Amino acid sequence: MFLEQGIKPENKFWKYLLGSVFIITASFIGQIPFSIAVLYKTFNSNKSFPTDSDAALKMFEPNLTLFLIMISFAFAFAGIYFVVKYLHHQTLLSITTSRSKIDWSRVLFSFGLWSFFSVISFLVVYFKSPENFVWNFKLVPFLILVVIGSILIPIQTSTEEYVFRGYLMQGFANLAQNRWFPLVLTSLIFGSMHIFNPEVAKMGYVIMIYYIGTGFFLGILTLMDEGIELSLGFHAANNLIGALLVTSDWSVFQTHSVFKDMSEPSAGFDVILPIVVIYPILLFIFTKKYGWNNWKEKLTGKTSIVKSSN
């Protein structure tokens, strides 16, 4: 069982707090290159230092910005590996899946499924209001984006999944000895991490329903499937396809995508549509494909302590 792989008498909850601090510190170290680049650009251009992250992100060419920002996630992932191995004496596999090895077919199926839904959803919106979009495609910058994005965006999304659906989910299971508490806490924390996104400032806090709801969806995938393979594939597809397909002036990252959304953002039914319609459809598909059952026990049941072999 996935959660039980981290539930051991010696795996005290304080270790997860210490480990989280270490991972966050590693992420901050990974942000040093971007900070140095901002200082260098500010000094060379004789302009004032940017007062907020949005201004800093717009200082550089989009592909360079994406590269510099994504570096921090590589450092954070290294931090996860170090903490899991040396603080908790577990393997990276143990916070990935309950299977004997990572099931890459699950990762690829989830990636392909959500990529398909994402493209179809965009086409529906595009043909409904084509005047809201402009052709943004430039071959060379786009190809560079494909290379950078295909390598670094999966590292970013995998880091987030390993932190929330792997490391912290097992950590909260250690604390509560049940399944519902890790699901709720990791979903709330995951959603809250997006509160400073520019989309929130534009659309209002109602969009937090989407972020927190997505956290619950990914947590449900993890608990029902006894591993994070499906959430790894979904999250990578969500961020990569989004970065390649469409950008806007009010999104977190401006990229050399195929289209640019020129509309004024507003929070309507489209905010809750994925939560109440799309995600349940995906859960139905996954249930049929992987034969999920016993939902109540897997999402809300008790966990058991695995005795140490030492």
From TrEMBL:
Keywords: Hydrolase, Membrane, Metalloprotease, Protease, Transmembrane, Transmembrane helix. Residues 142-241 form the CAAX prenyl protease 2/Lysostaphin resistance protein A-like domain. It comes from the Bacteria. GO terms for molecular function: endopeptidase activity; metallopeptidase activity. The keyword DNA-binding does not apply. GO terms for biological process: CAAX-box protein maturation; proteolysis. The chain crosses the membrane at residues 16-40, 64-87, 107-127, 139-159, 180-197, 203-223, 230-247, 267-286. This is CPBP family intramembrane metalloprotease. It comes from Flavobacterium cupreum.
